[in-house]
């Protein structure tokens, strides 16, 4: 019969390719909900070992994106941002703005991600 595992011993999380690439320890991603997931939340989740996500909405200004991206970066841990494709159809500026802050991951949802996804390649400029 195997010895019981002490209660205060946490199993080590499995390491997989996504975990290695994004640098999180705990399998926790906060949802990148515009209007709810700001830079402070992203930083806190990343600092706790998860993967913090910043939610960027259709009415967010350049100044807000800069401020929240700087907060997300403040944890000195990898973080990401989520944007809505229908917003990016009007302008790719929010994407360019957040990319300037070096997120490790970008999520594009609610529409066709093609134009924005192509922009994330080095040739985007």
Distance between the termini: 61 Å
Largest sheet: 3 strands, parallel
**Tally of strands:** 3
Proportion of residues in β-strands: 5-15%
Average pLDDT, rounded to a whole number, is 84
- Radius of gyration over C-alpha positions, nearest whole angstrom: 17 Å
Morphology call: globular
Low-confidence stretches: none
H-E order: HHEHEHHEH
How many separate structural domains? Answer: 1
Helix content: 25-40%
Number of helices: 6
- Secondary-structure-based class equals alpha/beta
Which strands sit side by side, in order, in the main sheet?
1-2-3
How is the secondary structure organized here?
Layout: H1 17-22, H2 39-47, E1 52-55, H3 62-73, E2 79-84, H4 85-88, H5 93-99, E3 105-109, H6 114-119
Parallel strand pairs: 1-2, 2-3
Helix pairs in contact: 2-3, 3-5
GO molecular function: dioxygenase activity
Keywords: Dioxygenase, Oxidoreductase
Protein name: NAD(P)H-dependent flavin oxidoreductase YrpB (Nitropropane dioxygenase family)
